[in-house]
Design brief:
single chain; Beta-galactosidase, Chain A, domain 5; Immunoglobulin-like; ten-stranded antiparallel beta sheet; 6 helices; 33 strands
């Protein structure tokens, strides 16, 4: 996940002249013949998939490449240069400047006048305190773009969505602040080999009509073993929705077959939380997401609290059909974080809903150690059971809901907090050291509807290397919600080099009725 991102290149630079002009001619012909569609970008992606991949070459001016983080931040796009501002449309586009770690992409505007390449102009940017000479650079392209709209107030156009770096993008709903990101595709994020980072090399921004309720973006993706065509329909609101249609082409003869094709990938940060507190930090929790939620086609809802593990941790949930998954920020109160600057309680959850039948596969969760809150260390994505062969293609579509206080929940009940640790106990220190205790709180309509005195059971299971010592459910007299206390003892020796994580599953039940989602957690050696 933290391998150096592959650098961008201008599209088609690696092609022989004849192939370059053939693709350029195809692009022009498609544009003049009819309105731009996903099929047009798909034709370009298919053509590119039939050519050998060549690692992009950097073309960043030396003085730009020498800028540090603060220097690059001091370069700002001028508001009055925003695309579509003069037309007083509901959306505007602004552009990111190329820098040391942000490389050039081609951005086009699609309008009634045709397909227009939006070239870089130094006059569009303010360079702050930097001592630079942009006149010597020529057309260096843009690093990416962001789209603005009146998300929170009719008087101001807020940032709605941004595309910057590789195939990353992130969006906001009303009242939210940027947190986790999505990607176009994840390729071999786990395993011995270095992760391959596909990148969007070209974008087409469709000029919106007056009063438009959504804005549309097309993108062309490229990497060593595949290409892709994407359409993004972005609808702002309290829950901003990004609908994604993707057509992936596998390059023939492009090296080893892809082992893990991660569809609809999400990337986030978990530093510490209620289940893994950090000594010495005044803040109770620091994270962009606190758990992975999964809805299976069989009707089960799963909740996996996130961790900041000491080493890479990969787990997966296999199923015949997927209804949805997401990295969620359930804790929405300021008191959960006490951070007046970061405002983690305003970070969005991202819920992915497949459009159409994706078939069998698995939701995979990757977590690894982060030393601080400035690094993403969590990824979640769908892995189809059957990966396309080289030369084949794959069409998939999904919807991402960027959600705040109103977010996707299981229909019956869900986990509100998951704490690990012991209070007062009559057990001696040696016995306590061999056990792990969790206190898990649940809420939801199925629990609220229980009659007074209803008998609620804690249904728990552990993997073969552990046993459940205690598992009880009871009503919390302070809140009226339900709490589960769970104690688990490891049967193997944690110091053993071959010791495996303990897998736990737990939910609440009344008679034969399941009342809540399934809390599923790992105890690592």
């Amino acid at each position: 996940m933290h391998a150096v991102l592959p650098r961008f290149t201008a599209p088609f630079l690696h092609l022989r002249p004849a192939r370059f002009f053939a693709l350029l001619g195809l692009c022009v012909a498609l544009t003049s013949a009819h309105a731009w569609t996903l099929d047009d970008v798909g034709a370009l992606a298919q053509q590119r998939a039939q050519t050998p991949y060549q690692q992009p070459r950097a073309a960043v001016p030396a003085e730009l490449a020498a800028l540090d983080y603060d220097g690059l931040r001091d370069i700002r796009f001028k508001d009055d240069k925003a695309l579509w501002r003069a037309d007083q449309l509901p959306y505007e586009a602004k552009f990111f400047h190329v820098g040391r770690q942000t490389d050039a992409v081609h951005i086009h505007e699609l309008s009634a006048q045709g397909n227009k390449l939006l070239r870089y102009s130094a006059d569009d940017f303010s360079y702050g305190k930097n001592q630079l000479d942009p006149a010597r650079w020529g057309d260096i392209g843009h690093a990416g773009f962001r789209i603005h709209t009146s998300l929170n107030s009719p008087a101001y156009k807020d940032e709605l969505i941004a595309f910057l770096g590789a195939s990353y993008f992130r969006a906001l709903g009303a009242g939210q602040r940027y947190g986790l990101s999505a990607r176009g595709l994840a390729v071999d994020p786990t395993g011995a080999k270095q992760e391959e980072f596909p990148r969007f090399t070209d974008f087409w921004l469709e000029k919106p009509a007056p009063g438009a309720k959504q804005v549309t973006v097309y993108a062309l993706l490229d990497s060593a073993r595949m290409t892709g065509a994407y359409r993004f329909d972005i609808r702002p609101g309290e829950e901003t929705v990004t609908e994604v249609h993707a057509r992936i082409f596998m390059r023939a003869g492009a090296g080893p077959r892809v082992a893990t094709l991660g569809v609809a990938p999400l990337t986030s940060m978990f530093f510490f939380g209620e289940n893994q507190p950090r000594a010495g930090d005044f803040r109770p929790e620091v994270h962009d997401s606190d758990g992975l939620m999964v809805a299976t086609g069989e009707g089960e809802w799963l909740w996996r609290p996130l961790q900041n593990p000491t080493s890479a941790l990969v787990t997966s949930f296999s199923m015949k059909n997927l209804k949805g998954f997401g990295l969620m920020q359930r804790d929405r109160a300021f008191s959960n974080y006490e951070d007046t600057e970061a405002r983690y309680e305003l970070r969005p959850s991202a819920w992915v809903t497949p459009l159409g039948d994706w078939g069998a596969g698995r939701v995979e969760l990757l977590q690894f150690a982060t030393p601080d809150e400035t690094h993403d260390n969590v990824a979640a994505y769908w892995v189809p059971e059957k990966t396309p062969m080289p030369g084949q293609s794959l069409d998939l579509a999904w919807r991402i809901g960027w959600q705040g206080t109103s977010q996707q929940r299981p229909p019956n009940g869900w986990v509100t907090q998951s704490r690990r640790g012991t209070g007062y106990s009559k057990l001696n220190a040696e016995a306590l050291a061999q056990q792990t205790q969790f206190v898990i709180d649940f809420a939801g309509p199925a629990l609220d509807a229980l009659p007074e005195g209803a008998r609620v059971e804690a249904i728990t299971t552990a993997s073969s290397n552990a046993r459940v010592v205690e598992s009880i459910a009871y009503r919390n007299p302070a809140t009226g919600t339900w709490r589960m206390s769970l104690r688990v003892q490891r049967l193997d020796t944690p110091a053993n080099q071959n010791a495996q994580p303990i897998e736990l599953r737990a939910f609440l039940q009344h008679d034969t009725h399941t009342l809540t989602e399934t809390w599923t957690n790992l105890i690592t050696p």
